[in-house]
Structures are given as structure tokens and as C-alpha cells.
Backbone:
């Protein structure tokens, strides 16, 4: 049966090692993972090294959540943020940031777009098209001025902006909530080791922290203030009963 949604690959020997992914056809994606791992050609070096050491029988595949195709990346990002999966080199859903391609792979990709094979061969952008491209790149240039590549801060801003424009549907939110309940929770009945706690703590320190350099808006502050006042009002009321 074809399932569209979010899947998890987890090590049996080292349960804290998890990979989170999304696919239109999960069973097909699993087959693709195994095919590349068996040939020692998987793009994810962490997953490939683990496979080579602990073998195929150590990896456990499971479906975390089925969802609409339009919600795939948003939902995958939610689970990546929730689990902070060890195997995921890229922490942004749908991104290949952090993956290193082999020289052979780069050469093949380069040859694939040379000369007449290039989609823009013999064509020219219209004035209107150039204008749209210019507008689209202005914001990114301002963020990335004087730097090489996309920084983690910029990447996070781009991700947050994208998520704000594409909110997760209510139906998918309910499925996500159910998928984390009771025994379905990835940490149900387990305890994190001290080493794992230390790594999680270090991954959130300073600039690595998800809220580093951010400030609550006045609207957000007002909501927090109202919520706290209501909490203490109810607590005081209950203590008098």
C-alpha cells in the first residue's frame, strides 16, 4: 500500500541514533535507502558508516505519520526539530545543506548541464523575468553579504519565513499529536543517557540555540503576560476554596 508521510530509521543497538525523512511513497523510499546502503553509495555518510559497522539488521524502519502531500516538508521539519535526529546531516527538511558530493558525482552533474543539454541553451531571460529574479534575490543578498554559502542563521530565517507562509493543516496537526502519544512516542519507556543529555545541551548553547538573537514581539509579550496573570488568578482562587 502506498503511504505518503513521515518515516523514521532507528538503530536497535544505539536507539538514540535516528533518521527522519519524508516521502510521497514511503516503501519506495525505504527501498532506495537500502539499495544505496548495500552498494556503499549512500549520500548520508553517517548512515552509511553505521550500516557498514552494524549491518542491515540493526536498522528499523517505521512510519511516524501519514499526511497530505502538501504538508510533507512542514511536517518533516516538525519531527526533525522534535527529535533532533543524529543521522540527519541536514537539519532543514528538503535541504541538502551539509552534504558533500564526490568529485565523480560533481563531474557527472556538470556534464549533464553542458552545452545543448542545459535548459537555457540558446535562450535569454525576458526583461520581466530579470526584474522578478532581481527582486527575489535582494533580500538574500542583504543577509548573505560578504559571506560564502548560506549561514545557519539565514537558513533558519528562511525556514521560519516559509513555515509562516505555509501553516500545517489542522488535520495533520491532530495526526502529529496522536503519533506522539503513549507508546508511539519515540522515547516511551526510555531514559536518555548522560552522554546524550550532554550532547543535547551543548547543541542548544549560544548561537546554536533556536532562540538565539531573537526577541519576542510586543504582541507575544502581551499574550504571555495575560496567560501568567490568569494562571496566578486561578491558583489563588483554588487555594481559597
Residues:
Amino acid at each position: 500500500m502506498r503511504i505518503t508521510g513521515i518515516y523514521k530509521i532507528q538503530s536497535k543497538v544505539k536507539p538514540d541514533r535516528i533518521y527522519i525523512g519524508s516521502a510521497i511513497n514511503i516503501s519506495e523510499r525505504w527501498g532506495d535507502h537500502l539499495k544505496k546502503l548495500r552498494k556503499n553509495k549512500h549520500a548520508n555518510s553517517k548512515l552509511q558508516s553505521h550500516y557498514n559497522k552494524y549491518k542491515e539488521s540493526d536498522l528499523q524502519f517505521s512510519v511516524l505519520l501519514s499526511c497530505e502531500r502538501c504538508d510533507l516538508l512542514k511536517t518533516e521539519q516538525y519531527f526533525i526539530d522534535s527529535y533532533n535526529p543524529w543521522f540527519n546531516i541536514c537539519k532543514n527538511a528538503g535541504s541538502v545543506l551539509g552534504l558533500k558530493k564526490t568529485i565523480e558525482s560533481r563531474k557527472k552533474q556538470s556534464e549533464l548541464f553542458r552545452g545543448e543539454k542545459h535548459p537555457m541553451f540558446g535562450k535569454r531571460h525576458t526583461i520581466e523575468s530579470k526584474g522578478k529574479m532581481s527582486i527575489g534575490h535582494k533580500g538574500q543578498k542583504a543577509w548573505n553579504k560578504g559571506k560564502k554559502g548560506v549561514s545557519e542563521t539565514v537558513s533558519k530565517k528562511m525556514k521560519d519565513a516559509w513555515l509562516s507562509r505555509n501553516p500545517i493543516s489542522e488535520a495533520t496537526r491532530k495526526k502529529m499529536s496522536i503519533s506522539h502519544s503513549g507508546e508511539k512516542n519515540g522515547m516511551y519507556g526510555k531514559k536518555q543517557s548522560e552522554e546524550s543529555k550532554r550532547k543535547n545541551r551543548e547543541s542548544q548553547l549560544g548561537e546554536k540555540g533556536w532562540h538565539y538573537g531573537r526577541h519576542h514581539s510586543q504582541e507575544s509579550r502581551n499574550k504571555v503576560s495575560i496567560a501568567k496573570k490568569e494562571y496566578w488568578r486561578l491558583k489563588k482562587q483554588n487555594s481559597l476554596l
Observations:
- Residues 140-144 have pLDDT under 50 and may be disordered.
- The beta strands are 5-11, 18-23, 59-66.
- The first helix runs from residue 26 to 38.
- The chain is about 50% helix and 10% strand.
